[in-house]
Design brief:
Chains: A mainly alpha (about 575), B mainly alpha (about 100), C mainly alpha (about 170)
Largest interface: B-C, 74 and 93 residues
Oligomer: heterotrimer
Helix content of chain B: over 70%
Largest sheet of chain C: none
Number of domains of chain C: 2
Structural class of chain B: mainly alpha
Number of strands of chain B: 0
Distance between the termini of chain B: 58 Å
Structural class of chain C: mainly alpha
Radius of gyration of chain B: 17 Å
Number of helices of chain B: 3
Number of strands of chain C: 0
Strand content of chain B: under 5%
């Protein structure tokens, strides 16, 4: 049992132990529950931070479970440790934030137990090297996400949103499971590294099925086109949950999956183009949707989908490093935006931006951190979002067609526009009503300020971050550069200046919105279409309705008489025997 | 020769499955259905050992049979606990009386 | 010849355990079936499992059955099944035919003949197989037993339906 193995055990085990303890503490002792949740999530965060310097491509934990499943292995490679660190650190900040946000709520045990269960599963998902375990952890994150979206289970909208998220991510889970089983059938192993190593051995058609199965899984999990409608509906969850699961961690699992298996699939014809297309469409469509939404959390959700689109696009363009670096920046600034939005909503008592306005004077701290996050989201220089977004655009320049790059740059401008619209409507302008909003509580500030600092300075670690990925991912062929090189490269690249120009145009469009009637009038027409998610809302709702109606109809077959149930089981046995005997 | 060990075990296995299925399908008493389930599991265990014997991998077969025994015991214990609860709630073990799932 | 006697014994006692209407006697017939099955397994060379089956299958499970019957009590129920009796017969015959269809081709394989010959040289690796090759099973077994004990404790200690009613009452009052 070496040191890395101990850390991996702690990162996964501590949150799960904490979940059990919180549940055991019972809802009668809320103070104890708050304390336990904070203690265990922070301890897991510390363990994950200690794991970062131990990153290597060697297997750290190997649990032998016999011949059938191979070994359950955990590898602390660069992708794994940094995502585990994000999951646990952002997780512990979200838990600390919850101490204020969830004060006095009922059923805290269910809330904290699910969050801690999620944190452990997310760390396991990124650290394991076994496809079977990836699927297992993947499904645990889907389950906890569903349970937390529907946390207010007397609210029909929350329940419907949870069901929708569950059904659509299950669709993706089927793609992942099929991929894992096919890979096992051909390679005789669930090991990820075996799949990466021997990808050329597989027949081309099989590798194609695998590649597109994983793409479906990733798109459903990361709420990408054409599954992009579940994430906005998931905003019924308590805000710390939205910040943790639906902005910083779980939705990144899809991008993680694509990045992890990129070396195996890059040779599949059409796969890279499909990935870029999915990312581009998600980015541009949801940016336009964010422009017309009035619900503060929905705006942030659309922008999450849009930024995830950037990452998926970068993976498709071959920029695995750029995509992971943007993932890193995005987790920090989007968690910051969501948590400060949570503070605003908590204080204002509404999520409708039209009823906010002028809150800046009443909550100066929240305004300050929100503006920092918003500037990073818009991609203005020196903040972390600027550097990573420019890296993605540069990857797109070398790895993708020019028209897609053009769309992505246009999206950057739209991003700036909706970000400034959002900031203005919430913190500036005329107060919509004379409501006294109090500033964030102490625990909220404890959670917000580290994230704001991270947004300001996290790009400084780009050098070590690149080296970590380069040294521990033997199949990805990542070349690390020092901070100075990357900064110089970005500053010299023409794409950067074009993008900055477009961002400035977006800003100008908001400032001059009164004069630009020519632009804003047709936008009103787009607004209606975009609120229904360009028709994809309809398709996704049909899928969910179909699943639920099917379940409802199948109820007629349940008479509750045990004998008939047994007969059905026996008949199924006959079918199984027939299939086995015929050797189909 | 026709009465050798293997042939006997094949016949017993198939016979046990048949008896178990019949017992589970026609019983009205919940407890008897659990008994039928136990018989079916005995047949499965015999089949495991038989296949191990035929392949010369008796140890793996034994290991699997052990898993079956443990699983089956846990199933029996939980099933009987449920039966006791059914009896407390409905006052009977008749499966006709407890089929209340109709719409 | 002994094998045939054991086999007939298994089938007869299994049949009687299904036919018997008194539950206690049913449990005893089940125990006898289990004991005979373990004897048959012993004769096939699976000594380790036979011992476990004898102690757990015939011993522990029977004790639990008797215990449960004591709590739940016996009652006279109508013998009219809820399913048409011919349908049950069809299912049984079909099961027999299909199993034979699956098993008989395997019996023609050459390994079958070697399986007939040897009896003693096969075992001796049981521990290694159990602890190394199938250790996932052992882990699962431990988890399963734990879950089973928890379930039974939960089911037997307090009346879950009573607490369920309280909860639903709480929800209504909100």
């Amino acid at each position: 049992m070496n040191y890395a193995a101990l850390c991996i055990g702690l990162v996964i085990g501590l949150p799960w132990l904490g979940a059990l303890l919180v549940w055991w503490a019972g809802d009668g002792r809320p103070r104890l529950q708050h304390t336990l949740a904070v203690l265990f999530s922070v301890a897991a965060g510390v363990a994950a931070a200690l794991l970062i310097p131990l990153g290597s491509h060697e297997t750290a934990v190997k649990i032998s479970v016999g011949g059938a499943f191979g070994d359950f292995t955990f590898v602390p490679d660069g992708l794994g440790v940094f995502l585990a660190a994000i999951a646990t650190v952002v997780g512990s900040l979200a838990v600390i934030f919850s101490v204020d946000y969830m004060k006095g709520e009922a059923q805290l045990g269910r809330y904290y137990a699910m969050i801690l269960f999620f944190i452990g599963a997310m760390a396991g998902l990124v650290l394991t090297n076994n496809l079977f375990l990836i699927f297992l952890f993947w499904e645990i994150t889907a389950l906890t996400s569903y349970a937390l979206i529907s946390f207010y289970n007397d609210d029909p909208k929350a329940v419907a949103g949870g069901m929708k998220a569950l059904i659509i991510t299950q669709l993706g889970g089927v793609g992942l499971l099929a991929g894992a089983l096919i890979s096992y059938a051909y390679l005789g192993s669930f090991e990820v590294s075996v799949l990466l190593e021997k990808a050329e051995v597989l027949p081309e058609s099989v590798l194609g099925i695998l590649a597109f199965g994983f793409l479906i899984a990733a798109a459903a999990k990361s709420s990408q086109f054409p599954f992009q409608t579940w994430l906005p509906d998931a905003m019924e969850a308590p805000t710390p949950v939205s910040a943790l699961i639906h902005a910083a961690t779980m939705v990144n699992a899809g991008v993680y999956l694509l990045a992890r298996f990129y070396p195996a699939f890059e040779g599949v014809p059409g796969w890279r183009e499909a990935v870029m297309l999915v990312g581009m469409l998600s980015a541009v469509l949801s940016a336009i949707m964010a422009l017309t939404a009035y619900d503060l959390k929905r705006v942030l959700a659309y922008s999450t989908v849009s930024q995830l689109g950037y990452m998926v696009y970068a993976v498709g363009a071959g920029g695995v490093f750029a995509s992971q670096f943007h993932l890193f920046s995005h987790s920090i600034f989007k968690a910051l935006l969501f948590l400060s939005a949570g503070a605003v909503i908590h204080a204002a008592g509404t999520r409708d931006m039209r009823q906010m306005g002028g809150l800046g004077k009443q909550m100066p701290v929240v305004r300050a951190v929100f503006v920092i996050g918003a500037l990073a989201l818009a991609g203005l220089p020196v903040l972390n979002g600027f550097w990573s977004k420019e890296l993605i655009l540069e990857a797109g320049l070398t790895g993708g067609p020019a028209w897609m790059l053009g769309v992505m740059i246009f999206t950057a401008g739209v991003t700036a526009l909706y970000t400034f619209r959002c900031v203005y409507m919430v913190f500036y302008g005329q107060p919509a009503q004379n409501r006294h909003a109090h500033d964030a509580g102490m625990f909220m500030k404890i959670a917000l300020i580290p994230l704001a600092l991270g947004t300001l300075v996290s790009w400084l670690v780009v050098g070590p971050f690149g080296r970590l990925l380069e040294e521990t991912l033997p199949f990805h062929g990542i070349h690390a550069h020092s901070l100075g090189d990357i900064a110089l490269e970005i500053v010299k690249a023409p794409v950067t200046w074009i993008a900055l120009g477009v961002i400035a145009l977006g800003l100008a469009a908001w400032v001059l919105r009164k004069q630009l009637r020519l632009v804003s009038e047709p936008l009103q027409g787009v607004a209606g279409v975009s609120r229904s998610s360009f028709g994809f809302e309809f398709i996704n709702r049909k899928v969910v309705d179909f699943t639920q109606q099917l379940a409802e109809d199948l109820r007629a077959g349940q008479t509750g008489v045990l004998s008939w149930n047994l007969l059905a089981i026996v008949v199924t046995l006959f079918v199984v025997i027939a299939i086995l005997s015929l050797g189909v | 020769m026709i009465f050798n060990l293997i042939n006997v075990v094949v016949v017993v296995t198939v016979g046990l499955v048949g008896i178990a299925i019949y017992g589970m399908l026609v019983s009205r008493n919940l407890m008897k259905i659990v008994v039928g389930l136990q018989l079916a599991v005995k047949a499965a265990m015999l089949a495991f050992i038989l296949s191990g014997r035929l392949n010369g991998k008796i140890d793996e077969a034994q290991s699997l049979a052990l898993t079956v025994i443990v699983t089956d015991t846990v199933v029996a214990v939980v099933a009987l606990a449920l039966v006791v609860q059914v009896r407390r709630k409905f006052g009977t073990l008749d499966i006709k009386a407890i089929s209340t799932l109709r719409r | 010849m002994l094998n045939v006697l054991i086999g007939v014994g298994i089938l007869v006692s299994a049949f009687l355990s299904i036919r018997e209407s008194r539950l206690l006697v049913t449990a005893l017939w089940l125990a006898l079936t289990s004991a005979l099955v373990s004897w048959l397994m012993f004769r096939m060379g699976a000594a380790e499992v036979a011992v476990v089956e004898l102690s757990v299958g015939a011993g522990l499970v029977t004790v639990i059955f008797v215990f449960a019957i004591n709590i739940a009590g016996d009652e006279a129920l109508g013998s009219q099944p809820l399913l048409p009796r011919p349908l049950a017969w069809v299912a049984v015959v079909l099961a027999g035919v299909m199993l034979a269809w699956m098993v008989l081709p395997a019996m023609q394989a050459p390994e079958f003949l070697t399986g007939l010959e040897e009896t003693s040289s096969l075992h001796g690796y049981f521990k290694r197989v159990l602890w190394h090759d199938r250790s996932v099973d052992v882990i699962l077994q431990a988890v399963l037993m734990f879950a089973g004990v928890l379930t039974v404790l939960g089911l037997l200690t307090d009346d879950p339906f009573a607490t369920g009613k309280e909860e639903s009452h709480d929800l209504q009052s909100h």
